[in-house]
């Protein structure tokens, strides 16, 4: 077995520090790290009390980064997020007050409780990593990650997220309740003195990890497979999935293909590899695609699920027979 690369060692240390505080939620934690390394944003669906805020705050502490939390409410206005121009009566001049989006890790709690005007204020900063106030652009710190949460149960007082904004989230992760054993450990830790998280990396090291993720090799056959998977969500019949054609009203955009490839690079780096495997793409497919596919009215009436549709595409779409590593050899798990 190859020696563990320094980048993988650093990521292990970051995850170790987070798990000193957060119990369980391994899938969620891994996806948070994938989003961070790939420079993407995360939409998280889960009931309250599942350590969503704690996870992001702990991650910010481990990388010595800034953390801000915004509670989205119906009375929120765009200036509460991005900032505004303030008039100073003493000097007779305007000055710019920057909002809470100027941070490394931003938690947008219950994002679907704010109206469309507030949601649109996030579009520019999520895509361009900058905010325009009174015609002047201001860059947010690097790295920058938005993690938004929404409650799958409560619908009263919530708003539909615009499709343009939903598509800007690299992944949508659905998290559930902990097991009985995990909940026991959670209660046990809550009764004990609080754990002091150590900063094991800084933002400069995290930026270096992001650059390392971009250098992970993706075999062209895997990239072509990612293209076909995403395209099959738009036109299933073209790819021999005619029975699924009536289930899809709108498929995923090309942004999903990019997110799938970049996420697979980050996942491979986390696992100590310099190349992507087919398994990396398949593991991320549900999280990358589930929020980008709109089911037809017929499919909704039949109570079909998006995840089941993705399962069928991955099961029936032909995958590459052979994947190569950077040296031209057959890529295998280490």
From TrEMBL:
Presence of keyword Membrane: no
Pfam families: AAA_3, AAA_lid_2
Signal peptide as annotated in the record: none
GO molecular function: ATP binding; ATP hydrolysis activity
Start and end residues of each ChlI/MoxR AAA lid domain: 247-313
Keywords: ATP-binding, Nucleotide-binding
Gene3D superfamilies to which the protein is assigned, alphabetical: Magnesium chelatase subunit I, C-Terminal domain (1.10.8.80), P-loop containing nucleotide triphosphate hydrolases (3.40.50.300)
Source taxon at top rank: Bacteria
Residues of the ATPase AAA-3 domain: 41-171
InterPro entries according to UniProt: ATPase_AAA-3, CbbQ/NirQ/NorQ/GpvN, ChlI/MoxR_AAA_lid, P-loop_NTPase
Family of this protein: Belongs to the MoxR family.
Protein name, entry field: MoxR family ATPase
Source species taxonomy: Bacteria, Pseudomonadati, Pseudomonadota, Betaproteobacteria, Burkholderiales
């Amino acid at each position: 077995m190859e020696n563990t690369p320094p980048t993988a060692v650093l990521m292990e240390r970051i995850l170790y520090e987070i798990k000193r505080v957060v119990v369980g939620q391994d899938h969620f934690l891994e996806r948070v790290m994938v989003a961070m390394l790939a420079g993407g944003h995360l939409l998280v669906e889960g009931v309250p009390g599942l350590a969503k805020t704690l996870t992001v705050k702990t991650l910010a502490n481990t990388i010595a980064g800034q953390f801000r939390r915004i509670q989205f409410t119906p009375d929120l206005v765009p200036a509460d997020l991005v900032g505004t121009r303030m008039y100073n009566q003493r000097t007779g001049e305007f000055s710019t007050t920057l909002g809470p989006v100027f941070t490394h890790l931003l938690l947008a709690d219950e994002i679907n409780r704010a109206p469309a005007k507030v949601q649109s204020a996030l579009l520019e900063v999520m895509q361009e990593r900058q905010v325009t106030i009174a015609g002047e652009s201001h860059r947010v710190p690097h790295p920058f990650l938005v993690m938004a949460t929404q409650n799958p149960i409560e619908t009263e007082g919530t708003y539909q997220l615009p499709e343009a904004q939903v598509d800007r989230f690299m992944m949508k992760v659905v998290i559930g309740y902990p097991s009985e054993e995990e909940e026991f450990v959670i209660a046990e830790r809550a009764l004990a003195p609080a754990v002091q998280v150590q900063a094991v990396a800084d933002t400069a090291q995290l930026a270096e990890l992001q650059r390392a993720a971009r250098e992970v090799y993706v075999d062209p056959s895997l990239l072509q497979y990612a293209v076909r998977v995403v395209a099959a969500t738009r036109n299933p019949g073209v790819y021999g999935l005619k029975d699924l054609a009536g289930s899809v009203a709108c498929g995923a955009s090309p942004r999903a293909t990019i997110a799938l490839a970049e996420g697979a690079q980050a996942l491979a780096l986390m696992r100590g590899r310099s190349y992507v495997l087919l398994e990396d793409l398949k593991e991320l497919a549900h999280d990358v695609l589930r929020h980008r596919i709109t089911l037809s009215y017929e499919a909704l009436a039949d109570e079909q699920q998006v995840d089941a549709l993705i399962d069928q595409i991955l099961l029936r779409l032909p995958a590459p027979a052979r994947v190569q590593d950077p040296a031209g050899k057959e890529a295998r798990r280490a």
